[in-house]
Amino acid sequence: MIVADTSAIVAIVFAEPERDVFVRVIQRAQRVLVSTVSVVEARMVVHGTRGQRAVVLVDDLLRLPMFEAMPPGASETDAAYAAFVAFGEGNRSFGSVILRRRVQLRAGQGAERYAEGLATLHQSGIVASWS
Known about the structure:
Distance between the termini: 7 Å
Number of strands: 3
Mean pLDDT: 74
Number of helices: 7
Low-confidence stretches: 93-100, 102-111, 124-131
Oligomer: single chain
Helix content: 55-70%
Strand content: 5-15%
């Protein structure tokens, strides 16, 4: 099991350079959890960049059998915050972290680190409450 975030979903839909890494990680996972918040955010990003017709690509991706949308509860919120503390950008706002990550990923940086971070989160038990 892994957890996919907005940047991974958008990278796959937009066929960004790190797409292949994300696809390989997802294909190896039997189960991919996605926060309902990330689903909405991915739809908003895709809609804002490519319009409503492109949102169909997000929805089609998330309909694949390995994806499972999870509403954020207290344990998921705690896990997300723990991931931010472990792998985030200090005390910057979430928006600037997402923007910086998107710039890095578009520049071809960080895809392997992101995939490794997902694996580390799972191995460390940070997302154990989701399994």
